[in-house]
Design brief:
Helix content: 25-40%
Shape: globular
Order of helices and strands: HEHEHEHEEEH
Number of strands: 6
Number of domains: 1
Number of helices: 5
Distance between the termini: 24 Å
Length: 182
């Protein structure tokens, strides 16, 4: 089944990945609330000055494309597994979506069948595999069902090297989407 696409979400994820990339590699997961930029400016007009000029049109009006402003959630627990941490999160209705930026090791599909069944063994096996790739993944979901991912391979530091697509990490997308259910 294909996931709904949302150009503004894709743009927000690419910008988030670029924002996180400025701090380099080997980071902890970073979680963001996604709010409607127009609603945020209506509630906090002074924030318009902090937005990218292309987001705000003439006289402070929001551009023609619906945009999302990312609000980083600080002090995430580092002693919990990611799935456990996400299972404990629920967003208020003012949050239209959420995004997560994580670093992972990935393998090509051609070696997936060789993956050990035991999770601890699998983690060690992936970490030692000669075909592993370190990636930074920005995953985003919206309450309307839209979802997307932006992915950068380590060593591909140009912004045009960032890949995107809604089905790059389906399990992470599902876990993140669960945080939006009431």
């Amino acid at each position: 089944m294909s996931s709904p696409m949302n150009t503004a979400l894709t743009q927000a994820l690419i910008e988030l990945e670029q924002y996180v990339a400025k701090d380099g590699w080997d980071q902890q997961p970073r979680l963001f609330a996604l709010v409607d930029t127009a609603e945020l400016i209506a509630a906090e007009p002074r924030l318009a000055a902090a937005l990218a000029p292309e987001t705000v049109e003439f006289e402070g009006q929001i551009g023609p494309l619906r945009t999302y402003t990312s609000i980083e959630q600080e002090d995430l627990p580092t002693d919990q597994a990611l799935d456990e941490m996400l299972a404990g999160i629920a967003w208020p209705s003012t949050v239209l979506g959420t995004a997560l930026v994580v670093e992972r090791l990935m393998l090509p599909p051609s070696v997936q069948e060789q993956l050990p069944a035991d999770e601890a063994d699998a983690d060690a096996w992936v970490a030692a595999h000669p075909e592993r790739q370190e990636v930074r993944i920005a995953v985003g979901v919206l309450r309307d069902g839209s979802r997307d991912c932006a992915l950068r391979l380590r060593g591909k530091e140009k912004d045009e090297d960032v890949l995107s697509g809604p089905d790059l990490v389906p399990n992470l997308v599902r876990a993140l989407a669960q945080t939006l259910h009431d």
